[in-house]
Amino acid sequence: MSRIFSRRDLEFLLYEWLDVEALTARERFAEHSRETFDAFLDLSARIAERDFAPHNRRSDVEEPSFDGERVHIIPEVAAAMKAFNEAGLIAAPMDEELGGMQLPTVVTRACFMWIQAANVGTSSYPMLTMANAHLLATHGTPEQIETYVKPMLAGRFTGTMCLSEPQAGSSLSDVLTRATPAGDGTYRVTGGKMWISGGDHELSETIVHLVLARVAGAPAGVKGLSLFIVPKHLVGPDGTVGERNGVALAGLNHKMGYRGTTNAVLSFEEATGYLVGEEGKGLAYMFMMMNEARIGVGASAVALGYTGYLHALAYARERLQGGPVAAKDPLAPPVPIIDHPDVRRMLLASKTYVEGGLALVLFASKLLDEPSAENDLLLDVLTPIVKAWPSQWCRLADDHAIQIHGGYGYTREYPVEQFYRDNRLNSIHEGTDGIQALDLLGRKVVMRDGAGLALLLGKIRATAAAAPPDLGEPVLAAADRLARTTAKLWAGGDPTVALANATAYLDAAGHLVIAWLWLSQISVISDKSGDFYEGKRLAARYFITHELPRTGPLFDLLDSRDTLLVDLQDAWLG
Fold this sequence. Notes:
The chain is an alpha+beta fold. The chain has helices at 7-17, 34-52, 56-61, 75-86, 105-118, 120-139, 142-153, 282-318, 341-369, 373-404, 416-424, 433-444, 447-465, 469-489, 495-498, 502-523, 531-547, 551-559, 564-567; strands spanning 65-66, 71-72, 157-162, 178-181, 187-197, 206-215, 225-231, 233-235, 241-244, 247-252, 263-275.
């Protein structure tokens, strides 16, 4: 059994639960079948095992360096990127006319999670490139698509997103980078960008930076932001890569995880930029890439938690230590530590987190393959949860993996400590978990008079009502509680009070959604037998009886409309 990812779980979720084969009835996916889906899964698993996993440790230890002139990266990264691109995985979900294969998003996501689980640092380069290309394919001009999108999908160029600045991390209204019209249809972009993943390297012919900047005279705040293509090198009309643009690497940041991904401080000095769409709509365009990246971050958190769980499971079956709890003979032979109750507790909890998180990511991805007003609304509500819930709870699976390994888990000779460090970054990537909580409670559940929340709760209640009462009734009760609590929080119309405990709200809502998805999974099992299905049934029961009750105290706190965190004065902290 692979310690990177679970093919059996993927097959269950894709084919038995989500019925992705039915997508082939849609015109966009008509050329596909289960055979092509399986072929892509096979290919992704092979590339993950062969090209990405072997250098995961080395790229963590020998992280990228900058000598003042160029970035140095271990050669295995370029080789893995080459294999990924040549296999066509970079373009798989895109339109055929762009060189893609119109693979469903949900299948693409499943394939890419193999890559993320194998080596999240190297996987960041294609992840950002795919999201960049998707944005430009949607909002770019035909010329921009020809010049930048097609080379990215061919593996020649890579892409980034440049939002944050030294003084403006998550607060994009504070962006200072400016763009001045040059009079020839282009702009001159000047400013600095910070924390830019994949911001500089020599893995591609050039790097296509998507940069948020403010045109002179634009209004303050996010409404004054525009989006620009600012390539590292100028690209000629015939597609040839020319001289350097005014983009310089000021230095590399060195993070605790994702060490194989260059994380750059970029300086833009009168760099030639090309407007995407209309002035003043930059953030609206960028939200497409941000939301795609948020699902990608959630997927990354699941993948890292999943591989951590599989490593812990294998170790617990192999490691002999201690005797049975009831053993009276001190000389009794040691047993595998999986026989010890607390190890089982951590393994079962981890199983529910990672398999529940995987279901969440794939469910959200399938909504993109079946666009409709209802599915779009449901995805809007779920996206903050998709990003933030796995970032916390699948990271806990990696925490458990370290604990199960005991003293060995804290050493660099075993990989689980790296999985944890890598996963820790996902709570801040693409908007912190706290920002996702504000988005969920402050926008998503109240937009359109609560239509999104009503839609989500309706689906949860329908699944719970059809489930066995011992499992369905707790989920129904939690759904009703979420509805009442949301109404109570906003009853006064004061956002300061309503949002004071937004993180607790996301935790409760996230646990409810995962409980719902566990109920949904076992609803398709019916009378199927075997260890795999028994494991699913037990995991669902565990999550609903052991994890869902965590929401009770959270709802109590929220119902109290407690303002302790608002009332707190900084001087009281010491």
